[in-house]
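Supplementary Methods. Inverse-folding protocol.

Structures were first reduced to a C-alpha cell string of length 1425. This string, shown here, constituted the complete conditioning input.
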C-alpha cells in the first residue's frame, strides 16, 4: 500500500490539472527503446510500469478517479509501445483474481465496466487469450453459453486423450537419418559442432521430438563410451538443462535390465559416470533415480549387524545339554548373490565412477550411502586407481632392490583423474583420503597394502616425517582392520609391525585400543572374525596342556596373526582363573608374530588397569597370576617392557602399591634376583660372598640364561628414566601405604580384627622387596660410573626426596665401594715402588676410603641434630651404613661347600659317557666355576683384611669421650635408633650384618663402647620392637636376634671362648673410669656373672614373648611367633621358660583354631618344633649357678640399670669376698716402678683366678646338694603347693594388668579352680556336701597360709634392709677413699646421673610402665621364694 498511497497523493488529488499529464510523463520515461520491453530498466531491473498501471486501475475501481478518466489515459498509453496492451492485460488479470471473491461488490462492477470499455481499443483476440472464461462471460465478451462446454472438450482431446502413435508405423525417415549420423565411423577430426548442426537440421526438417533425440544420442553414447570427448561436448551443447538429462537417464535406469553375466558395469552406468565427471549432470539430480532407496539399504545393514551380534551373544551362552550344543556353529558369511549386487545401482555407479577415475564424485556418492564398508568390486576398482597414483613415489623411494624391476603400473589416462603422487606431501590430496575411505576393504589387495606400508615407513625415517599423523590414521582405519580380514597372513603382520615399531608405545597402544574396542564392535565383517576367533580360542584353551604345547601353540599362533587382541583378552581371563595355564601358554607364544607379541603387551596393561582387587587382600589371586604370566612372557619373548614399567610407576604415583608385585616378578624372572625371605642358613651365609657365590649358592634358582633378558630390562628401565624413579617411588610408598591403606579400610566391613593391619603389612613388605630387588639389579647391571652418574646425591635423597637412610645408603653403597676401589687403584698405579706389600695395600685403601667418605660425612652431619653426634661420631654412622657383609666376613664354609659340590658335579660329568662331548663341556664349565670361586674367595679375603685394618684405625674416634663421663645408655640408644634397628629389618643379609658389625666393634676393642650393655638393651627391649614390625620385618628381626643370641650363647657355653674374646675386652667393663680406664681386674664381668646375665636375657625375652602372645592382637601374636621360630636354635634353652612359652602357644592354638587360621598354623608349626627341642633343654642349675640370694654385684648395677633396672628371676651373685675387699681397699702409694706394678697385677690376677675356680667348685658342690634336697622336698609337697608355685612363677613373667588380655584373668581363675578341685579328694569328680567342720578346717588353713606369707614378707624386708645398709656403707667407704679424685664429682650423683636418669626407650614411650617399677620388689621376693 505504500506505492498506492504515494500514487494517490502525487496524481489523484490534482488529476485534472497536473496529475494526468505528470502520470503520462512518468510512463513515457519508461519507454525509450522500442526494441526493449518497458518492464525493465537499463540495468535489467523492474522499471515500475506495471505497478503504476495497477495503482491507476485500483484508483478507478475504488472511485478515487472517474472511470472515463482512467479509460482515456489507458487509450493514450497504448499508442506509446507495442507491449503495453500485454502489460495492461497482465495487470487486469491480477485485479480479476482480487475482485472475483466478491461478485456483487462495487469494485467488481467497476472492474467489469473498465474491461468492457477496453474492448474499444484492445483486440478481442487478446482479451479472450488472457482473461478467464468466467470474466469474459461477466463482461459480455462471450455471449454463447456453449463456449465453456466446447472448451472443456477441446482441452481433454489435446492433453488427456492418448494418441495411437508408433514410430515404426509413422514416417521414420528423420529418426533413421539421426541414427545413421550418430553411429557412422567418426574420425578424430570430427567435431561436435558439425554433428550438432546436422541434428538440429533433422529436428527442424522432420519435426522430431527433442527429448527422443536426446534419448537416441545417449543410446549412441552407450554403444561407444570411449568417444566421451565427442559425446560429452555434443550433449552439453544440445541440452544445457541437467535436470532434463537426468530425467531421461532416470527413465532409462528404471527400464534397465539386470543380468548376472555382467563382468563390468553396464554401459549406461559408465555414461552416467562420465557425465558426472564432466559435470554435465550433478549427483543431486541423478541420485533420486538410483535404486534401491537409502532406507532399504540402511535396513539391510542393520539386519546384518544384528545377525552378527546374535551370533556373538550365543557364543557366550553356556548350554547344559552337552558339548555339541555349547556354542553355535561357526559363523560362515553367505556368498554374495551377483544379482543382488548388479541390482544395486548405487554400488554399480560407484564402481563405474572409479573405472573412469572420477574420484571426487565417488567420494561424494560414498558419503551418502548408509553402509559401513566399501563393497568388494568398488574396493578393487579403487585399489587399481591407487596403484597408479602411488606408482611414481613407490618406484623412486621404496624399491626393495635396484635390480628388482617389478611390474610397472601405467598412469591414468583421463585428464580429469587425480594426479599421481611424486612427493610424500602430495599423498595427502587423494591417496590418504582414499585409503581411509577404503577402510577394512583394503584387504582385497595385499600388494597395495605392502606398498602403502613401505611408503609410510620411508616417510617415517625422514626428518620431520611429513606423514606422521596421516600414517597413524591409515593404520587405525585401514591397515589393522584389513589385517583382521586376512586369514593367517603372518608375513603381512610382520610388515605392519615394521611400521608400527617406529612409533612410541603410547601411539601404538592407542591404535590397538581402537582396533580392539571400536572397529571390532562397529564393522560387521570384523565382528564376524571376532566371533569366530573367540569360538576357536575357547576350543583351543580347553585342550592346552604341557603335553600338546606344539600343536596347540601353532593353532594359537595362526589364529593370532589376524585378530590377536580378541584372543588375548580371553586367554588372560583364563589365566587369572587357572594359573596352571601360565607355563603352556608362555611356551605357545613362540609361534606368535612380533605384532601379536606387542598387542599382548597392550592387553596385559589393559587387563591390569581394569582389574579390581579383592577387598582385604594384599595380593589378589588374579593379580598374582597376571604378574607371574607377565614376568614369564617378557623373559622368554622380546616384548617391549616400557609400557608395563610406566604403568607401575604411574600406579605408585597414584599411591597404589598393589601393582609392585608385577615389578617384583619381572625383576626376579628377567634378572634372576630373588626377594626370598625364607632363606636357609646356608643361603644367608652365601649372600656374604661375591657375586658368583651369590648366584651359585645364594638363590633358590640358578641365575642362568638371564643375560639377554637382563639387558632388555635394563634398557627399558634406563631408556625411559624409570630406574631411580621407581626406587624412590617404592621407598616413598613403603611408608605411604601404611597410612593410606589403613585409613581407607573400613573397620566395620565385617572382617576379623587385625585384617587391615595384615594387608598393610604385606603391602609394606612388598614395597620393601621390590625396592631391594630393583636396587640390587641396578647396581649389578650398570657400569659403576653410569650408575653413579644416574643416582642423585646422598644428601639430595635424604633431604629432597624424603628417603630414609637405609634406602639412601642401600642405593649408594655400590657407588661408595666403587669409589674407594677406584681411588685405591689410582694410588696403586701412581706409586713408584714395584714391589707390592700388604701394608702398602692397606695404607692405600685407608687413604682412598677417607677421601671417598669424607664428602659423605660432611653432607650427613647437618641432617641430624647436633646432640646425636655427642654420642656417636658421623664417621661411625657413615662407616656402619656404607659397609656390607662382604666387607666384614669371608663365608669360608659356603665357598668350600660350593667348591666341593662343583667338583663332585665335574667328576660325575666326566664319568657319564652317554652325553659325549656335552659331558666334557659340562666338566669344563664346572672346573671353570671352581677356579672362579677360588679366585673370588682370595680377593674377598684380601678385601676383608684391608677393611679390618681400616676399622682398627678408625674405631678410636667412633664414640666420643663424653660417653665415659655419662651413662652408656646414650650411646647404645643412638646406635639402636639410627643404625641397628633400621638396618636389621631392611633385608636378611643386613640383619646378619648388624649382628656381625656389633661383634666386630666388640672384637676391635672399641673405646667407650659397652658390648654387654648393647646386648642387654637388645634383649630387654624386644617387645616394643616386635610389636612395630610387619611380617617380613619380624622375620628379619628374628634372624638378627638369632645371630646375636648365637654369639652370646657361644660365650655362655665355652669358658675358654669367653676368656679369650670377652674377659679383658672394653665391651665387658662394668666400671668406667676416665683417668685409669680398664686397668683394674675387677672392672670386667666374670664368667659366672655373665652366665647370670644370660639367664636374665632369656627371662626378658620370655617375658616379652608372653606379653605379645597374651595381647590378643593379631600383629603382636603373629610377630611373636615369627620371632620365636627364627630364634628357636638358641632360645629357649631353659626347660622352665620353654614350658611357659609352650603353654602360651597352646592357648593361642585353642583360641585361634576357628578364628584366625594363619595364626593357628604358625602356632602349630612352632609348637611341633619346640617339642622336638625339649630333650635338649637345660635345667636352670646347668645354665648358671643357683644359690642363696646374693648381696650385691657390680654387674647388677651396670647391666640391670641398662636394661631398665629389673633383675631376672635369679639375681646375679656377688663377686668373691676377696675381690670385694680388693675393690674397697685404699689405693697403694705410687712410688713403685711400672714394672713392679705390672708384676704385682699379674700375680694378683692369677691368684684371683685360682680363688675363683675353687669358689665355683665349692658352689657347684653345695648347689648339687641343695638341688637333691629340693627334689626330695618337691616330691613330699602336695600338688596344690606345686601348682601355686608354678602359678607364681608364671605371674612374674606374665604382663601387668594394663597389658593383659581381658580373658587372661578368667583363664587363670579357671585354671586355679581346676587345680584346687583336682587336689581335693585325690582326683575324685564327685562334689562333696559342705559341712561346718570342713569350713573351719579350710578357714584355719587359709589363716595359717596368710600368717606364713606375712612372716615371709617381713623376713624379705629385713634382708633387703640389711643389704641396703651394707651397700650404703661400702659406698661411703669408697667416697672417703676416693674423695677429690673422681672427675665426675659426687659418687652418688654420678651413680644417679649414670644409671637412673636415663632416656626412654628408643622405640616406645614407657610412661605406662610406672606400675611395673612400683611392684618390682614384690616380684623379686616371689622369685627368691
Amino acid at each position: 500500500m505504500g506505492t498506492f498511497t504515494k500514487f494517490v497523493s502525487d496524481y489523484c488529488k490534482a488529476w485534472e490539472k497536473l496529475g494526468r499529464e505528470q502520470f503520462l510523463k512518468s510512463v513515457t520515461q519508461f519507454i525509450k527503446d522500442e526494441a526493449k520491453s518497458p518492464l525493465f530498466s537499463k540495468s535489467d531491473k523492474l522499471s515500475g510500469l506495471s505497478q503504476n498501471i495497477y495503482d491507476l486501475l485500483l484508483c478507478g475501481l475504488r472511485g478515487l478517479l472517474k472511470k472515463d478518466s482512467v479509460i482515456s489515459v489507458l487509450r493514450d498509453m497504448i499508442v506509446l509501445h507495442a507491449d503495453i496492451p500485454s502489460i495492461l492485460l497482465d495487470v487486469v488479470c491480477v485485479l480479476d483474481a482480487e475482485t472475483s471473491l466478491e461478485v456483487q461488490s462495487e469494485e467488481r462492477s467497476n472492474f467489469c465496466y473498465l474491461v468492457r470499455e477496453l474492448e474499444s481499443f484492445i483486440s478481442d483476440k487478446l482479451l479472450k487469450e488472457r482473461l478467464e472464461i468466467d470474466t469474459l462471460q461477466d463482461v459480455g465478451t462471450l455471449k454463447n453459453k456453449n463456449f465453456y462446454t466446447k472448451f472443456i472438450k477441446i482441452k481433454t482431446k489435446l492433453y488427456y486423450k492418448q494418441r495411437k502413435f508408433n514410430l515404426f508405423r509413422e514416417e521414420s525417415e528423420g529418426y533413421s537419418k539421426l541414427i545413421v549420423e550418430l553411429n557412422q565411423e567418426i574420425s578424430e577430426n570430427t567435431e561436435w559442432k558439425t554433428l550438432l548442426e546436422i541434428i538440429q537440421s533433422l529436428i527442424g526438417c522432420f519435426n522430431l521430438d527433442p527429448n527422443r533425440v536426446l534419448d537416441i544420442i545417449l543410446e549412441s553414447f552407450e554403444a561407444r563410451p570411449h568417444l566421451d570427448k565427442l559425446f560429452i561436448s555434443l550433449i552439453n551443447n544440445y541440452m544445457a538443462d541437467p535436470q532434463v538429462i537426468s530425467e531421461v537417464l532416470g527413465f532409462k535406469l528404471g527400464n534397465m535390465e539386470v543380468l548376472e553375466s555382467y563382468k563390468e558395469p553396464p554401459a549406461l552406468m559408465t555414461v552416467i559416470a562420465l557425465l558426472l565427471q564432466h559435470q554435465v549432470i550433478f549427483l543431486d539430480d541423478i541420485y533420486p533415480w538410483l535404486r534401491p532407496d537409502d532406507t532399504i539399504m540402511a535396513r539391510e545393514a542393520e539386519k546384518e549387524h544384528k545377525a552378527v551380534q546374535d551370533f556373538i551373544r550365543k557364543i557366550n551362552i553356556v548350554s547344559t545339554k552337552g558339548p555339541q550344543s555349547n556354542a553355535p556353529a561357526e559363523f560362515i558369511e553367505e556368498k554374495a548373490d551377483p544379482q543382488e549386487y548388479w541390482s544395486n545401482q548405487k554400488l554399480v555407479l560407484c564402481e563405474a565412477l572409479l573405472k573412469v577415475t572420477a574420484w571426487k564424485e565417488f567420494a561424494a556418492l560414498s558419503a551418502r550411502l548408509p553402509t559401513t564398508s566399501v563393497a568388494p568390486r568398488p574396493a578393487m576398482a579403487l585399489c587399481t586407481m591407487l596403484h597408479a597414483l602411488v606408482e611414481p613415489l613407490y618406484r623412486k623411494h621404496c624399491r626393495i632392490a635396484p635390480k628388482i624391476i617389478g611390474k610397472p603400473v601405467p598412469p591414468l589416462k583421463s585428464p580429469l583423474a587425480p594426479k599421481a603422487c611424486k612427493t610424500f606431501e602430495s599423498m595427502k590430496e587423494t591417496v590418504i583420503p582414499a585409503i581411509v575411505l577404503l577402510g577394512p576393504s583394503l584387504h582385497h589387495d595385499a600388494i597395495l597394502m605392502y606398498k602403502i606400508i613401505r611408503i609410510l615407513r620411508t616417510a617415517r625415517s625422514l626428518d620431520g616425517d611429513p606423514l606422521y599423523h596421516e600414517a597413524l590414521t591409515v593404520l587405525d582405519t585401514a591397515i589393522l582392520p584389513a589385517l583382521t580380514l586376512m586369514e593367517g597372513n603372518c608375513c603381512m603382520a610382520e610388515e605392519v609391525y615394521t611400521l608400527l615399531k617406529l612409533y612410541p608405545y603410547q601411539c601404538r597402544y592407542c591404535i590397538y585400543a581402537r582396533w580392539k574396542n571400536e572397529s571390532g564392535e562397529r564393522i560387521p565383517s570384523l565382528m564376524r572374525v571376532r566371533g569366530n576367533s573367540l569360538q576357536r580360542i575357547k576350543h583351543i584353551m580347553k585342550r592346552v596342556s604341557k603335553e600338546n604345547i606344539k600343536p596347540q601353540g601353532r593353532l594359537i599362533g595362526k589364529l593370532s596373526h589376524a585378530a590377536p587382541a580378541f584372543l588375548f583378552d580371553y586367554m588372560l581371563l583364563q589365566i587369572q582363573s587357572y594359573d596352571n595355564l601360565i607355563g603352556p601358554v608362555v611356551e605357545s607364544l613362540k609361534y606368535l608374530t612380533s605384532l601379536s607379541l606387542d598387542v599382548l603387551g597392550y592387553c596385559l596393561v589393559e587387563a591390569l588397569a581394569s582389574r579390581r582387587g579383592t577387598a582385604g587382600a594384599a595380593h589378589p589371586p588374579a593379580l598374582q597370576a597376571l604378574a607371574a604370566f607377565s614376568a614369564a612372557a617378557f623373559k622368554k619373548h622380546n616384548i617391549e617392557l616400557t609400557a608395563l614399567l610406566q604403568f607401575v610407576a604411574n600406579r605408585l604415583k597414584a599411591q597404589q602399591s598393589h601393582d609392585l608385585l608385577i615389578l617384583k616378578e619381572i625383576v626376579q624372572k628377567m634378572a634372576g634376583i630373588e626377594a626370598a625371605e625364607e632363606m636357609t642358613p646356608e643361603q644367608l651365609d652365601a649372600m656374604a660372598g661375591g657375586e658368583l657365590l651369590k648366584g651359585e649358592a645364594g638363590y633358590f634358582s640358578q641365575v642362568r640364561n638371564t643375560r639377554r633378558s637382563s639387558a632388555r630390562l635394563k634398557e627399558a628401565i634406563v631408556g625411559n628414566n624409570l630406574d631411580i624413579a621407581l626406587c624412590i617411588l617404592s621407598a616413598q610408598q613403603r611408608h605411604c601405604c601404611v597410612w593410606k591403606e589403613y585409613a581407607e579400610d573400613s573397620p566395620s566391613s565385617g572382617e576379623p580384627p587385625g585384617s587391615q593391619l595384615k594387608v598393610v603389612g604385606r603391602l609394606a613388605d612388598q614395597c620393601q622387596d621390590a625396592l631391594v630387588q630393583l636396587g640390587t639389579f641396578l647396581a649389578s647391571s650398570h657400569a659403576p660410573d653410569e650408575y653413579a652418574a644416574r643416582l642423585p646425591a646422598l644428601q639430595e635423597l635424604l633431604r629432597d626426596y624424603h628417603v630414609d637412610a637405609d634406602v639412601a645408603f642401600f642405593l649408594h653403597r655400590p657407588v661408595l665401594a666403587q669409589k674407594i676401589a677406584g681411588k685405591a687403584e689410582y694410588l696403586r698405579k701412581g706409586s713408584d715402588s714395584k714391589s707390592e706389600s700388604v701394608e702398602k695395600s692397606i695404607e692405600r685403601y685407608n687413604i682412598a676410603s677417607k677421601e671417598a667418605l669424607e664428602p659423605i660425612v660432611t653432607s650427613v652431619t647437618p641432617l641430624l641434630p647436633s646432640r646425636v653426634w655427642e654420642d656417636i661420631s658421623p664417621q661411625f654412622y657413615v662407616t656402619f651404613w656404607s659397609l656390607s657383609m662382604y666387607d666384614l666376613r669371608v663365608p669360608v664354609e659356603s665357598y668350600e661347600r660350593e667348591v666341593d659340590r662343583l667338583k663332585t658335579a665335574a667328576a660325575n660329568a666326566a664319568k657319564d659317557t652317554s652325553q659325549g662331548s656335552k659331558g666334557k663341556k659340562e666338566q669344563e664349565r664346572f672346573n671353570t666355576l671352581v677356579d672362579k670361586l677360588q679366585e673370588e674367595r682370595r680377593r674377598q679375603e684380601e678385601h676383608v683384611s684391608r677393611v679390618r685394618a681400616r676399622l682398627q684405625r678408625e674405631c678410636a674416634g667412633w664414640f666420643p669421650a663424653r660417653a665415659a663421663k655419662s651413662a652408656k645408655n646414650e650411646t647404645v640408644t643412638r646406635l639402636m635408633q639410627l643404625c641397628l634397628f633400621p638396618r636389621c629389618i631392611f633385608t636378611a643379609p643386613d640383619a646378619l650384618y648388624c649382628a656381625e658389625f656389633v661383634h666386630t666393634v666388640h672384637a676391635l676393642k672399641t673405646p667407650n663402647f659397652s658390648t654387654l650393655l648393647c646386648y642387654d638393651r637388645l634383649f630387654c627391649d624386644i617387645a616394643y620392637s616386635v610389636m612395630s614390625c610387619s611380617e617380613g620385618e619380624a622375620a628379619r628381626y628374628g634372624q638378627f636376634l638369632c645371630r646375636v643370641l648365637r654369639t652370646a650363647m657361644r660365650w655362655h657355653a665355652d669358658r675358654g671362648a669367653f676368656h679369650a674374646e670377652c674377659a679383658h675386652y672394653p665391651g665387658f667393663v662394668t666400671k668406667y673410669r676416665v683417668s685409669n680406664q680398664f686397668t683394674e681386674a675387677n672392672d670386667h664381668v666374670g664368667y659366672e656373672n655373665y652366665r647370670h646375665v644370660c639367664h636374665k636375657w632369656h627371662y626378658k625375652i620370655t617375658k616379652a614373648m608372653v606379653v605379645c602372645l597374651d595381647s590378643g592382637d593379631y600383629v603382636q601374636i603373629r610377630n611373636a611367633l615369627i620371632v620365636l621360630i627364627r630364634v628357636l636354635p638358641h632360645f629357649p634353652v631353659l626347660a622352665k621358660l620353654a614350658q611357659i612359652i609352650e603353654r602360651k602357644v597352646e592357648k593361642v592354638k585353642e583360641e585361634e583354631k576357628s578364628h584366625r587360621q594363619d595364626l593357628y598354623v604358625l602356632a602349630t608349626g612352632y609348637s611341633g618344633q619346640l617339642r622336638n627341642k625339649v630333650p635338649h633343654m637345660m635345667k636352670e642349675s646347668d645354665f648358671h649357678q643357683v644359690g642363696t640370694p646374693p648381696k650385691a654385684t657390680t654387674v647388677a648395677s651396670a647391666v640391670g640399670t641398662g636394661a631398665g633396672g629389673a633383675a631376672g628371676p635369679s639375681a646375679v651373685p656377688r663377686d668373691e669376698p676377696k675381690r670385694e675387699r680388693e675393690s674397697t681397699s685404699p689405693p697403694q702409694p705410687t712410688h713403685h716402678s711400672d714394672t713392679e706394678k705390672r708384676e704385682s697385677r699379674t700375680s694378683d690376677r692369677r691368684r684371683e683366678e685360682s680363688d675363683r675356680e675353687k669358689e665355683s667348685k665349692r658352689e657347684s658342690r653345695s648347689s648339687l646338694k641343695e638341688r637333691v634336697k629340693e627334689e626330695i622336698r618337691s616330691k613330699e609337697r602336695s600338688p596344690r603347693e606345686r601348682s601355686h608355685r608354678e602359678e607364681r612363677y608364671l605371674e612374674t613373667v606374665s604382663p601387668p594388668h594394663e597389658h593383659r588380655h581381658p580373658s587372661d584373668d578368667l583363664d587363670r581363675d579357671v585354671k586355679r579352680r581346676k587345680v584346687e578341685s583336682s587336689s581335693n579328694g585325690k582326683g575324685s569328680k564327685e562334689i562333696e556336701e559342705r559341712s561346718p567342720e570342713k569350713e573351719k578346717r579350710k578357714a584355719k588353713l587359709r589363716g595359717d597360709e596368710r600368717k606364713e606369707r606375712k612372716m615371709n614378707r617381713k623376713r624379705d624386708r629385713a634382708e633387703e634392709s640389711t643389704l641396703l645398709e651394707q651397700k650404703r656403707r661400702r659406698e661411703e667407704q669408697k667416697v672417703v677413699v676416693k674423695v677429690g679424685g673422681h672427675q665426675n664429682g659426687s659418687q652418688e650423683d654420678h651413680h644417679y646421673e649414670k644409671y637412673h636418669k636415663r632416656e626412654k626407650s628408643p622405640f616406645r614411650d614407657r610412661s605406662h610402665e610406672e606400675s611395673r617399677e612400683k611392684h618390682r620388689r614384690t616380684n623379686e621376693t616371689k622369685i627368691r621364694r
